[in-house]
DNA sequence: ATAAATTTGTTATATTATAACAATGCGTAA
DNA sequence: TTACGCATTGTTATAATATAACAAATTTAT
């Protein structure tokens, strides 16, 4: 059978909704705790939903934080090319969508000629608010 | 007292040696197992050594793998600006040292004008060997 | 309708990382 | 020198993150 690519299961919808509502990246277990009333009882249910949502480009994982954010790029068709801005102080995370940057990285070729079909870039610094 | 910045403790030397010898990224617990004969008995000892070595730019953490590699850039003075090439098939990881790339990223400025003092970039694809 | 395959639920456990405190070493002021 | 303070290292315990394994339910194919 061919995989359904445009339908979200109940668990996936619940998890996505929580992540979209959040103002900051959410950890898997904090998601688990906040959806237990809605019938999601165990880690694998959360992790499966997260995996699926990542594959669909609906959410991204912030690797340096083991946390998850909703994609802000109108459902990222390029979930394999992600860039984030992370504040070291308030931990705010925002997805960078900068055509020049993504073009540059998508076309990047190293010395050996290896080409890449996926990248993840995480920038760290102080956000405007925290710099003051 | 001011911090010593150029001296490695015994544990740090042992951990660094193991990582430098390895041909692939090492996980913290695999490091722990392989240094237990040498007197390192518990996770915090390994994690402390890793933290220190990271700060010194002697090693880097591959965030997407929770694994550690030795810096190949002659002791990275720019441990805060890292880029890696990761093969999805054989899991080979190599540090990218490309002046153009690092310059581009170091100077990158997003829409809001936020500037960054640190970044980590992980590229994924198939290495030459695995592409054949 | 039945069997096969896929997805979801559940239990258990593996893996990664840190908290908390004790023991040790080390510089310094009396 | 000694004894006090502070930093580093060792140790125990536990927290946080993630997956394996199998059962139950649902969907799909025959
Ligand atoms: Zn996105
Ligand atoms: Zn901030
Ligand atoms: Zn390096
Ligand atoms: Zn390869």
Describe the structure.
The first copy, chain A, has two domains: 10-70, Winged helix-like DNA-binding domain superfamily/Winged helix DNA-binding domain (Arc Repressor Mutant, subunit A, Orthogonal Bundle), CATH 1.10.10.10; 81-131, Dna Ligase, domain 1 (2-Layer Sandwich), CATH 3.30.1490.190. Chain A has five helices and five strands, in the order αααββββαβα. Chain A has helices spanning 10-21, 28-34, 43-55, 99-106, 128-131, and strands spanning 59-62, 67-70, 81-87, 93-95, 116-125. A three-stranded mixed sheet of chain A has the order 4-3-5, covered by helices on one side. A two-stranded antiparallel sheet of chain A has the order 1-2. In chain A, strand 1 and strand 2 (67-70) form a beta hairpin. Chain A is globular and about 50 Å long. The termini of chain A are far apart. The model of chain A has no long low-confidence stretch (mean pLDDT 90). The interface between A and B is medium-sized, with 30 and 30 residues. The complex binds zinc ion (4 copies).
List segments of chain A where confidence is low: pLDDT < 50 over at least 5 consecutive residues.
none
Shape of chain A: globular
Number of domains of chain A: 2
At the fold tier of CATH, the topology name of the largest domain in chain A is Arc Repressor Mutant, subunit A
Main sheet characteristics of chain A: 3 strands, mixed
Summed up, the helix count of chain A is: 5
* Helical content class of chain A: 25-40%
Termini distance of chain A? 56 Å
């Amino acid at each position: 059978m061919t995989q359904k690519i445009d339908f979200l299961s109940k668990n996936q919808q619940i998890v996505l909704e929580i992540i979209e509502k959040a103002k900051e990246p959410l950890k898997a277990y904090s998601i688990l705790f906040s959806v237990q009333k809605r019938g999601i009882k165990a880690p694998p249910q959360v992790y499966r939903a997260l995996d699926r949502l990542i594959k669909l480009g609906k959410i991204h994982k912030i690797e340096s934080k083991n946390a998850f954010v909703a994609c802000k790029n109108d459902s990222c068709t390029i979930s394999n090319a992600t860039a984030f801005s992370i504040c070291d102080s308030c931990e705010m995370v925002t997805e960078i969508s900068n055509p020049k940057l993504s073009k540059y990285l998508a076309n990047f070729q190293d010395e050996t000629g290896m080409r890449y079909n996926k990248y993840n870039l995480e920038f760290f610094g102080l956000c405007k608010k925290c710099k003051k």
